[in-house]
Amino acid sequence: MHDLSFFRSNLDSIAQRLATRGYQLDVEQFRTLDTERRTALTDAEKLKAQKNAKSAEVGKLRQQGQDTEAIQQEVRLISDRIVVLDEKAKAFDETFRDLMAGVPNIPHESVPIGKSADDKKKPLDGRCDVVVSGVTPAARFWTLTLYDQKGRLVANSLQRYGFTSQEIIRGADGAFEIRVASRSRAGNWLPTGGIERYALMLRLYDTPVGVATRTQRDAPMPSIAIVGCP
Question: What is the pTM of this model?
Answer without folding.
Answer: 0.52
